[in-house]
Amino acid sequence: MRSTDRYRRFAPWPGKLICRSERGLAGDTARVEPGPVSQPPSGPAARLARIAGHLRLEDWLLVAWLVVAAPLLGRVEDTAGPFDAGRPIQGALELIAVLGAMICLVTGRSDAPAGADPGILGRGAIGPLVGGLLLVTFSGWDGLGLAGTPAAVVAVVIAGIVVVVRLRWAALTTSVRRALVTPFILVTGGIFWTIVDSITGGQGVIGSPTAGLSLRDVGLVVGLLAVFSAVYYAMLVYAPRQVAESEGGTITWLVRYGVFLASVVVGISWLRPLGM
């Protein structure tokens, strides 16, 4: 008998003998050829697809609003700031948006998972949303030219509608809550566009306000705008959406914020070649 066919006996624990063949052990160590490793797609198209994967319908609507709707409304109504009078279209839209956001704020989610906890960020988003509601309400009143009794009447009507809805529907589905808060996100994005447009004088982000400044001063101006935009986005875009539905991780929201900034820049810049 050849040595390769002999069996080796060994006992891993007392009272039990296990037989294994040396040939079987040799078969267990047979060489395995590695297969080809697929590489993730690369290139501009793949990067754009990855960015698009972080966006939701609200983000695409906000892009369209900042690039097209806000610039056209700003030029049609010929306003220089978000609190100027003579903005009937924007003012009405802002008050309608406030109504939807308030309904979302006072109702719950009927389809929330059992035991779901919005977390500290979700609960903390309520405060910035309330501050944003006040800002948009004042902007809407100014746009419509409301003051004194007319403004108070509008406020009472909005509050009354919110109470009726809350008594009738204590909780709403997530899709309805997202739809209610979307107009608020659009008008707050439009207010930010108006602020940047008034600062730049319609010259683009780097325009007449930075003319004659050194590179260091230009960087300071752009940095201040970036900090302001981050705080503004957190209060008036991120917070309302978290109240409607707590979702998205850090990378996702950073991508959405970057798309927001790029949309503002494009929305301001495309008007200049047209002389608007």
Outline of this structure?
With 276 residues, the chain is mostly helical. It is built from 10 helices and 4 strands. The chain has one domain (57-274).
Our Rg estimate from Cα atoms comes to 30 Å
Shape: globular
Element-level helix/strand string = EEHHHHEHHHEHHH
Q: List the domain count as a whole number.
A: 1
Largest beta-sheet details: 2 strands, antiparallel
Beta-strand content estimate: under 5%
Number of strands: 4
Structural class: mainly alpha
| Poorly predicted sequence stretches spanning 5 or more consecutive residues | 4-13, 15-26
- Give the overall average pLDDT: 78
Description:
About 8% of the residues have low confidence. It contains ten helices and four strands. It has a two-stranded antiparallel sheet with strand order 1-2. The relative contact order is 0.14. It has one domain. The longest helix has 30 residues. It has 276 residues and is mainly alpha-helical. The radius of gyration is 30 Å and the shape is globular. Helix 4 runs parallel beside helix 7, helix 6 packs across helix 9 and helix 8 packs antiparallel against helix 9. Helices cover 64% and strands 4% of the residues.
Question: Could you give the topology of this structure?
Answer:
Layout: E1 7-10, E2 18-21, H1 22-28, H2 44-52, H3 57-77, H4 88-106, E3 108-109, H5 119-124, H6 126-144, H7 149-168, E4 171-172, H8 174-200, H9 215-244, H10 250-269
Parallel strand pairs: 3-4
Antiparallel strand pairs: 1-2
Helix pairs in contact: 3-8, 3-10, 4-6, 4-7, 4-8, 6-9, 8-9, 8-10
Short descriptors:
mainly alpha, two-stranded parallel sheet, globular, 276 residues
